[in-house]
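Structure ticket #2291
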Amino acid sequence: MKIKTILAAGAMSVAAIAANNAQAGAVLDGIKAKGFVQCGVNTGLPGFSAANAEGKWEGIDVDVCRGIAAALLGDANKVQYTPLTAAQRFTALQSGEIDILSRNTTATLTRDVKLGLTFLGINYYDGQGFLIPKALGVSSATELDGATVCVEPGTTTELNLADYFRAKGMSFEPVVIENINEATAAFFSGRCDVYTTDASGLASIRTTMAPNPDDYMILPEIISKEPLGPAVAQGDEQWADIGRWALAAMLEAEEYGVTSANVDEMKSSTNPGIQRLLGVSPGMGEALGLDEEWAYRIIKQVGNYGESYEKNVTAKLGVERGLNALWTDGGLQYAWPVR
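Resolution: structure written out below.
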């Protein structure tokens, strides 16, 4: 009887695995069928994801999607973009409206486990801060007792804000506005004393949206950890693997000094790591279900991580690498080895 029970349980387990495998690959198959990646992005955060004057999407988060398209579809331009508010983003991913969410999103335990997301890595290490008009006359977040604070709903920002003020024994009045453009407009019109979000977002807002950037300052306190990265819905492991290793390839390319300008020359390198990365030594593409030039195309068409950061974040926002420098330069960015 015991043996029959074990065999029956084993049969059920095999059936469950078979059922799961039948569903696996659905997202990837859908992308191949339609010929483009549907990428969920911010409604407009310069440096990360925003449409330029010609309507072309740009930013460090945009480049993640472009890199994946280059690896999978052969062309970094085979991406369509869905602008999403913070409140919309997870539903869009869970429902299949988008294939990937690349929208300055913090990786957390509850998002991983309860929302069923798979984070592919961290493309920006950040922390929450406060933007104020200099006329407010404060120099520290500890002086914000009683302030009105503009904040987006459905974010870790909203939760961190409440935690910080409670821990400091201070009160505040939240002004909760879902759309970032409406929220920043409310702040710059004087409806709020303070605007709070990730420090990178504050730099973007101050630099690109303030009537006069010199009239505003970011307070020195950073009140949280915000590891930001792209995510996909759980259930298609090959799709997640392709996204994860596309991001890793951009980082490893920078570690090896492989750029969009020298990638062809670097194919002649005798470094075994570079040979694996660029497909000169085969095997990495096959492991992902791709051809061997998948990473070469990412670097050639999009650039390495440092190139993406420089053109999108440093050049546009004046924000230096900091925590996002390579580990060899004192930062936290450390590529998983492509081997």
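Closing remark: The two ends are 48 Å apart (CA to CA).
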